[in-house]
């Protein structure tokens, strides 16, 4: 782009822009660039996998809820075997993990590529749930000699992050998941409260399930999904 100052008797050559036209063109370019947005979903899978490999387990589970593509990417076995081995493998002073590929070697050459997608994610979650149960079992070991109940029930319930949901199923198949609003823990009982304005009509319901929901990750903040359930609790809800 060329611009010229117009002096006395000068004329602009054909195809050249005047200062006003140049300024207008620059403004249009700025506007068009301002409207451009970079979509993370538009990146190649290799780059997204590299980004996901830096996430911790809980954040990776949340990333898998973005859409179908992110769900499959977040199931990558190479990422999850690194998370699994870091969390549960025996500690060795001479073992330093510097990459996802090197992590698979000390795992007794366990197969990564031959396993179905999400295999090591399931293994990690299963192991994590078992470790939570073991930790709670230790808290519940002392027994009150007067009641015969665990002496630290209140502490165990608070540590576990136990929550309660009601699953209402309509005759047409639609489900409504209602999380508890208030929870009061006493020495020998638990009071759970639900209330709200968006409850379905009783005449339309075909089933009601009461579920206790225990987070997979103790001591971590909740991340709520579309259906109202916490992502870190997904897969660990039990009907009561």
UniProtKB/TrEMBL annotation:
SUPFAM superfamilies: F-box domain. The keyword Isomerase does not apply. Residues 1-31 are annotated as: Disordered. Keywords: Ubl conjugation pathway. Residues 37-83 form the F-box domain. It comes from the Eukaryota. This is F-box only protein 15.
């Amino acid at each position: 782009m060329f611009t010229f100052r117009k002096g006395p008797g000068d004329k602009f050559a054909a195809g050249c822009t005047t200062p006003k036209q140049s300024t207008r063109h620059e403004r249009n370019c700025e506007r068009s660039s301002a409207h451009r947005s970079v979509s993370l979903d538009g990146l190649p899978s290799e780059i997204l996998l590299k980004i996901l490999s830096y996430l911790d387990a809980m954040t990776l589970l949340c990333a898998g809820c973005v859409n179908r593509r992110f769900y499959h990417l977040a199931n990558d076995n190479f990422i999850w075997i690194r998370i699994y081995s870091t969390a549960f493998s025996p500690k060795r002073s001479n073992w330093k993990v510097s990459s996802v590929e090197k992590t698979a070697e000390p795992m007794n050459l366990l197969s990564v590529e031959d396993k179905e997608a999400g295999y090591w994610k399931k293994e990690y979650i299963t192991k994590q749930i078992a470790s939570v149960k073991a930790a709670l079992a230790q808290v519940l070991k002392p027994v009150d000699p007067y009641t015969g109940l665990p002496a630290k029930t209140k502490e165990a319930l608070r540590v576990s992050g136990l929550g309660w949901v009601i699953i209402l199923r309509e005759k047409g198949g639609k489900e409504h998941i209602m999380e508890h609003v208030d929870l009061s823990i006493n020495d020998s009982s638990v009071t759970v409260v639900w209330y709200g304005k968006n409850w379905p009509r009783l005449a339309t319901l075909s089933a009601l399930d009461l579920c206790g929901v225990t987070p997979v990750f103790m001591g971590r903040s909740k991340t709520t999904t579309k259906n109202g359930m916490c992502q870190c609790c997904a897969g660990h809800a039990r009907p009561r």
